[in-house]
Write a structure and sequence with these properties.
This protein folds into three domains: 138 residues, Ferritin; 71 residues, no CATH class; 229 residues, no CATH class. It contains 22 helices and 14 strands.
């Protein structure tokens, strides 16, 4: 689940009527509950150990561990509803498991109560983080599950799209995606269904090399077209789907207004999860770089300088298979642009005149996303983007004061002779605003992003400055950022030590701006 960060400081306000005093009360209650519950879990762990149940003891220690402030982490909740305890268990073990489960249910109920108080105090991101912790502690908490977008079908927690597919007789296969149940064995045997005809996998591959006949891999929120292979399309779609879940929980306040969040927390009446997208995000993944270039060169003459691009005119993210370079960073960078931009249907200019740094900075920051063993995280200070940001300040003594940095619009930022240094600083500032003092400025940054992106041709966005949103002067933010960069560890970590392609600006055709095109990566 999302690690919300330490509660020793007040998280930056996410709404105009936010009450830091009320949030501080919620945080104090949470700390008291956590301390009491951790002591109970430690006692349960000892009792499980005494019965020789090591796995259960380890689970207790994991649930009792304090939340880390270094990284966001999300662990997907279990798909299956908790089973009834077998009556055949030894009496002592049965009673212990019943008591443990009861303690988890009661603790989760208290956290859920606090999430509603946090929402009332004007902090939807904090409230949403508490909901995620509710499900981590009690995976069958119905209201929390509903808020996170799940519905119970038989004895499984499913997304609406997955439930719909199952109702229509499809099943999910990890290699081939959604298939009709009766077709799975034939696919595993090397046969393929194309336009109603069965043929060999090689024959289908020949046909689909032409991108007009590309494979389509579909998940809850993504539709990936590729002429490389169905299996690779499914891999990309699964990776993006996992990223989407993480992204939506991390930036919950961006996608829902306080009023929408209040409706999301309703416990009665029809539920329509406000963060469930009806139309999938489109991704085109080409077999070769040349096909990628040929597709986009008329719109972007310098497209061959990029490794991926989200094009706002057709709302498609474009990538290609690159065997010589890790492509995951580019994938998540452009997916970030796509997710933020497509929160509104209207075509629009974004950060054309000012604040462009965060458009690229947050995408560079999200390159640090990492998924392994069912857990996702972002913000690893050892990631090359963050290490480069640290070096700009600590080794190069390069820093553009924030008041001047935020004044740059798209053209000023991308045409600067210091574009590479500015990209590094943008990534570092994004990390700073997301993580400083356990997330002190996180909600303020998310509100800033919402104001930048929530603008249409009919409505000019009112974008409050970061000093106003945080309540801290630009001078103090500058000082804090420099100190923060000095405090970060040095060296590339084991997660993502591969080199990241340097940022490049691509020429935007005159008159198109960000309403039609986004910079590539």
């Amino acid at each position: 689940m999302l690690e919300a960060g330490a509660d020793s400081t007040v998280v930056g306000p996410a709404t105009r009527n936010a009450s830091p005093k009320h949030l501080e009360t919620v945080q104090q209650e949470r700390r008291a509950l956590e301390k009491k519950h951790a002591a109970r879990l430690d006692a349960f762990a000892q009792e499980f150990t005494d019965l020789g149940l090591k796995h259960e003891a380890d689970t207790c220690h994991e649930l009792a561990a304090p939340l880390s402030t270094a990284l966001f982490r999300i662990q997907k909740p279990p798909k299956e509803k908790q089973r009834e305890l077998p009556k055949s268990l030894p009496e002592k073990e049965h009673d212990l498991r019943v008591d443990f489960r009861d303690a988890q249910v009661k603790y989760a109920a208290e956290l859920y109560r606090l999430s509603r108080k946090a929402l009332s105090a004007g902090y939807p991101s904090y409230a949403y983080a508490l909901v995620q912790e509710v499900v981590r502690q009690d995976s069958d908490h119905a209201s929390a599950r509903r808020i996170l977008g799940y519905k119970l079908r038989n004895k499984e927690w499913l997304t609406p799209y997955a439930a719909e597919r199952l109702e229509k007789g499809y099943v999910w296969d990890e290699r081939f995606g959604w298939l009709r149940k009766q077709d799975v064995e034939r696919y595993k045997a090397g046969q393929r269904l194309y336009l109603g005809r069965w043929m060999s996998a090689d024959k289908e591959s020949e046909i689909r090399r032409d991108f007009r006949h590309a494979w389509e891999a579909r998940t809850d929120h993504y539709r990936v077209h590729t002429n490389l292979s169905l299996e690779r399309g499914v891999e990309i779609a699964k990776s993006l789907e996992q990223f989407h879940d993480f992204f939506m929980q991390t930036f919950a306040a961006f996608f829902s207004t306080p009023d929408q969040m209040a409706k999301l927390f309703q416990t009665s009446g029809p539920n329509s999860n406000l963060m469930i997208r009806r139309d999938p995000y489109d991704v085109d993944y080409f077999r070769t770089r040349q096909e990628y270039v040929d597709r986009l060169k008329n719109q972007f003459p310098q497209i061959d300088m990029t490794n991926g691009l989200y094009y706002t005119r057709d709302r498609v993210a474009y990538f290609f298979f690159n065997p010589d370079q890790k492509e995951q960073d580019t994938l998540f960078h452009e997916a970030t642009h796509q997710l933020f931009y497509e929160n509104l249907r209207a075509s629009r200019m974004v950060a054309l005149e000012a604040n462009f740094w965060i458009v690229e900075g947050i995408a560079c920051y999200m390159e640090s996303y990492h998924a392994e063993n069912g857990q996702c995280s972002v913000g690893d200070p050892h990631h090359i983007r963050i290490q480069n940001a640290r070096e700009r300040v600590v080794l190069d003594n390069y820093y553009v004061p924030l008041e001047r940095f935020v004044a740059m619009g798209m053209n000023a930022f991308q045409k600067s002779p210091d574009i590479r240094k500015n990209y590094s600083q943008a990534a570092g500032l994004a990390h700073f605003f997301m993580h400083y003092e356990g997330g002190r400025y996180r909600d303020a940054l998310i509100e800033h992003l919402a104001e930048i992106y929530h603008t249409t041709g009919r409505q000019r966005a009112i974008v409050k400055s970061l000093d106003e949103l945080t309540g801290v002067s630009f001078a103090d933010l500058d000082r804090q950022y420099v100190e923060y960069m000095h405090s970060l560890p040095t060296g590339l970590g084991p997660l993502r030590a591969a080199a990241v392609a340097p940022p490049r600006a691509i020429e935007i055709p005159k008159g198109k701006g960000l309403s039609q095109a986004a910079a590539g990566h």
